[in-house]
Request: fold
Amino acid sequence: MNNSLYLLIPLSPWLAALWLGACCYLFGWNRGESGERHSAMVAIGATLLSLLLLLWLDGNWWWNGSAPGAVRLGSWLDSGRYQVALDLALDQTGLPLATLASVLSLITLRFSVNYLHREASFQRFFIILLLFIGALLLLLLAGNAVLAFVGWELMGLSSYLLIGYSFDRSTATSHAAQALITNRFGDVGFIAALLLSLLWCHSTRWSDLSLALSHTDNLRVTVLVTGFIVAALAKSALFPFSSWIGRALEGPTPSSALFYGSLMVHAGIFLLLRLAPLLQQMTWVMPVLALLALLSIGYSFYSGLVQNDIKSILMASTQTQIGLMLLEYSLGWFDWLPWHIGLHAIWRCWQFLMAPSELHLLPDPSFPEQKRIVLPSWLYPTALQRFWLDALANLLLVQPTRMLARDMARLEQRISHHLYGTTLINPANPGDSAVSQLLWRLADWCNSVEQRLLLHNSSLGMERLWSYVTRHLLLLDHLLAQPRYLVLLIVITFMIIL
Reply:
């Protein structure tokens, strides 16, 4: 097989998503119930193509007795000592999990055809799900950390979009924002580790990192490893980032099955598997991971005992299994871990997809409320509050981010809107094409600039302008004196020094 065809494994779902988006939102060909059949066929066909390519690779592996291994497809970045290649790792770690992910994705897509029948946003759901499938396959098969980060971020984006699938409900949008913000703090660790890998190792290939860092001082290795570990903990909802995934169940059941039951929730563990040769060099890593695993298991176990809906119970059970996987990793059971991931993914995907039917088959759908749980008096309310991790995450992560967004919006309203103008000279018709609306907005912006900066050129006008700018510069100075901005500047300074 031509090596360039390997790119079709992650690209096929993305091309299908692009086609559906163009058909639905640009040309309006497959909207509504009449377009469901076309959308389903395209989505299933693209995922099936990825699966067939993976099965071909698996067959060659079985026939030849060895996996293809590292495959270089080209160069993405080549600037002096800094190089990022387009390479895939078709090895015994990524290839079986990618095949399993394709099978589960295909099953979930077929299940979604009937589950979301006559939904107003049927096509949007399939587009986002295809975006996720391609991102996951890229993460599993990426030969370096940069390609893995592309899949990592696209998975986070698709997760956010499907948690807020019912964006007309404030609960869904609020939970989507909390999940996004929490994961972005984990992504900061991934980005820092990428930059430091390029700076210190001049490479981001998985095989090069452990070799290059073996000759680097312990402080640098500790900082780099910590970035990857923080990213893995956040993506797999491990302690102390365990709270966000309980709110992620606002999305449709098929997305919950694929994202938080079987596939995306294992992404952090898979990242640690890729970094196993590197992490084994650090004596402090495994005990710390074991402690975090035990805390994650305790949190999810006791929180799950007091849940009263089936999806939350399944989610708590999933978190417990992820904690067990991290514990196995800390014990060095690297050969067993992919088997645990695969078997758990199959079982949990089936459970989530069957959850709606199980509620109808049970004699009393309110069975969780009738459980009798014997817990100590101090532990029961603590478990009900999920050990206050939700409140802590909201206080330390979500609220500061929202305050920052409000401050930026206020600055924009007080400076940018008054400087450039916000009133359309001739508003475009909402039914006009996107190009027409873009031209109207560009014309309005040019008119506002002309009116406010060129025509008002008297001395009195300039005096008012400078007085206006000075007043808002003082406002900016006051905002930057706030503690959250001082901490942000310190972090940026620290990154520049590194």
